[in-house]
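INFO batch 0412 | record 1 of 1 | parsing
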Amino acid sequence: MTRRFQNAMQLMRRSDPQEQEDGFHSLRPYAAEHVEELIAEFRAEHRNHGLRCWLLELIAEARRPEALPLLAEMVQSEDEPLRDRAVRGLTALGTKETRHVLWRERANGRIG
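INFO prediction complete | emitting tokens
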């Protein structure tokens, strides 16, 4: 884990909205380098819904195959903001596997 990642996560957990935004945007260009750490942070976070949404957004933007299991899981979520981010992430990956997941979820009526 890099210092940049640790600093960004510290900012994203602060109570000041501007510092949270700063943390998110500082990590955005490097999300692909930290996808495994982002997934671990997402799975460990249970209290802060906004932070979970941002983490999933970063994971989706990373466009890394390692994110497929989590994105496929979250596309089935009852939580609409998480589900929407997962759909965007799967769409951005654009692999045969992600197209299959999206097709299945559309066929099951979970997504539009």
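INFO post-check: The mean pLDDT is 96.
INFO record closed
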